[in-house]
Amino acid sequence: AGGGGASVSSHQASVSRSGGEETTDRLSKTSRAAAENFWAAIAKDFFWKTKHTGRFLDYNFDVTKGEIFVKCMEGATTNICYNLLDRNVHERKLGDKIAFFWSVERSDTDGQRIM
């Protein structure tokens, strides 16, 4: 079963929202090495109608140890639209801020990276 490992603070997890490639790579590695702690830190920032019951994260990817499964936050309920939009616009007063910015990377004819 999964879990355990290094801890990730809610602050560290939020850095991924505004960090660069190095931050993204570091957080990606942490999310795999310490999945339960990483996602628990992210989940702390959400509003939950009902909290999960039992383990936060449980999984088995080894067919020799039984059925393959992933269980995460079983029993928890939330409203994702409220968490991602309403809270940020109304409670955090971020309605005049850019919520999502997408930058497409491509290469020019010389193989140089262009943003």
From TrEMBL:
One GO cellular component term noted in the UniProt record for this chain: cytoplasm
GO molecular function: acetate-CoA ligase activity
Domain Acetyl-coenzyme A synthetase N-terminal: 26-83
GO biological process terms on file: acetyl-CoA biosynthetic process
Amino acid composition bias (Low complexity), ranges on this chain: 7-18
Biased composition (Basic and acidic residues): 19-28
TM regions (residue ranges): none
Superkingdom per UniProt: Eukaryota
Coiled-coil ranges per UniProt: none
Stretches for region Disordered: 1-29
Pfam family, any one: ACAS_N
PANTHER family, A to Z: ACETYL-COENZYME A SYNTHETASE, ACETYL-COENZYME A SYNTHETASE, CYTOPLASMIC
Name of the featured protein: Acetyl-coenzyme A synthetase N-terminal domain-containing protein
Species of the source: Poecilia reticulata (Guppy)
